Amino acid sequence: MHQPDLDCWHMQRALQLAAEGQGYVEPNPMVGCVVARGAEIIGEGWHRRFGGDHGEIEALKLAGDRAAGATMYVTLEPCCHQGKTPPCTRAIIEAGLRRVAVAMPDPFPQVDGGGAAELQAADIDVDVGLLESEARALNAPYLKLVGAERPWIIGKWAMTLDGKIATRARSSRWISGEASRRVVHALRGRVDAIMVGRETAARDDPLLCASPPGPRTALRVVLDTHASLSYESRLVRTARETPVLVAIGDTVTESGRRRLTDAGCEVFVCRGDTPAARLDALLAELGRRRLTNVLVEGGGRLLGSLFDAGQIDEVHVFIAPKLIGGIEAVSPIAGRGIEQLADALSLDGPAVEQLDTDIYVHGRVVALRQQKP
Q1: What is the DSSP string of 148-166?
Q2: Rounded to whole angstroms, what are the CA distances from 171 to 175, 200, 242, 324?
C-alpha cells in the first residue's frame, strides 16, 4: 500500500537533489532520484553534468542489489532512448524495482510517455504526477525549450528608487553595490548566453563574463542591426577567448560582416521585415542551438521588445537607495508597454532580499505569454 506522506517526503528529497544540477546539465533537464524501502533511503543521485550518468543510474549504483523490490522516486519520466548515455528504463528493469513514482512526464519527443510505458510493460508499477507542479517549476526553462523551441529569458537590471537605470546623460556606473554585482556574476556563471543591445554595448563597453567563473561559459550576444559594434570594444577584443555572437540585419554588407568575423566574432543574420520579426528569428536560432537560459542585461529597448513579445520569463532587479529624477532619464523597460494596469505582468511569489543597502527582487513571471510562430 502506498503511503502518501512518505511518497511526498521521498519525492521532495529527489527534487532537492535535482536542483543541484542547475547550471551543469543544460540543455538536459535537472533530474533527481531516490531509491527507498519504506522510509529507508538506500540510494540517491542526480544528473550532475551534461553527458554524465542520469540521476536514476547514480541512485541504482548506490542501492546495488538492495534495489530489487524497492521503490524509485524520480523527478522526471525515465528516458527510454539511447542518447549520450544508455536508456535509464533498461537499468531500472534489470535492477528489479517493484515500483517507480514519477513526478512528471518528459515531453522530449524521444521519451514522451515511452519511458513509463516500457516500465509498465515490464510489470513495474508506475505512478505519474507526484509533486508534478513542483517538478514543472524546477524544469520550466527546459520545458519552454522543448515546447516553444525558445530559450528561457531572464531579465536583469539595476535601478534607482525612482525607477531609472541611467541618468539623462546615460551615466549608469554604478547604480547597485558590490553585493548586488556578486549576485549578477553568479547568474552569469550558470546561463547559456548573456544578451545586450547595441546601445548598451557601446555605452557601457561591458565584458559580460562571470567573475569568478561559474559552471558555464555564456555566449555573449549583441543585437546590432547595422553591425556597428566597435572593433576596440572589450567584447570584440576578447571574442577569440570567449564567444561573441553579433545579431545583425540582412542589409549589412559583406564587408561589414567580415569586419566582425575577422575579429573573431560570429555573425548571425536576423531576417525579417520588422524588429519584432528579427528578434524572434534570433530567439529561434538560440533555441535551435539548444541554449536553455539567456540572461538579458539591457538596455531598455531590448528589454522592452522582449516584454512586448511576451518573452520575459523571469526577472532579477536590484534597487538602489538613490534618486536620479528627470523625464529624460532611462527606464528599464521601453517598447510599447501595456495600456491597462490590469494587463501588467506580475511575479509568482517573488523573493525579496537585502544586499547591503540594495533591495533584490527576483521571481518568475506569472503569465508567460509565450507565442510560438
Answers
A1: HSSPEEEEEEEEETTS-SB
A2: 9, 11, 27, 10
Q: Catalytic residue numbers?
A: 56
Q: What is the pLDDT along the chain (373 residues), one digit of tens a residue?
A: 467 899 999 999 999 999 999 999 999 999 999 999 999 999 999 999 999 999 999 999 999 999 999 999 999 999 987 777 789 999 999 999 999 999 999 999 989 899 999 999 999 999 999 999 999 999 999 999 999 999 999 999 999 999 999 999 888 888 999 999 999 999 999 999 999 999 999 989 999 999 999 999 999 999 999 999 999 999 999 999 999 999 999 999 999 999 999 999 999 999 998 999 999 999 999 999 999 999 999 889 999 999 999 999 999 999 999 999 999 999 999 999 999 998 889 999 999 999 999 999 999 999 644 433 3
Query: How far, CA to CA in Å, does 206 sit from each of 93, 199, 259?
Result: 52, 11, 20
Q: Tally Cβ neighbours within 10 Å of residue 352.
A: 10
The number of CA neighbours under 13 Å toward the Cβ of 206 is 26
Read off the amino acid at residue 134: E
Q: What is the number of other CB atoms lying within 10 angstroms of the CB of residue 124?
A: 19
Q: The whole model's pTM is what?
A: 0.92
What is the side-by-side order of every strand in the sheet holding 40-46?
A: 40-46, 32-37, 71-74, 99-102, 125-128
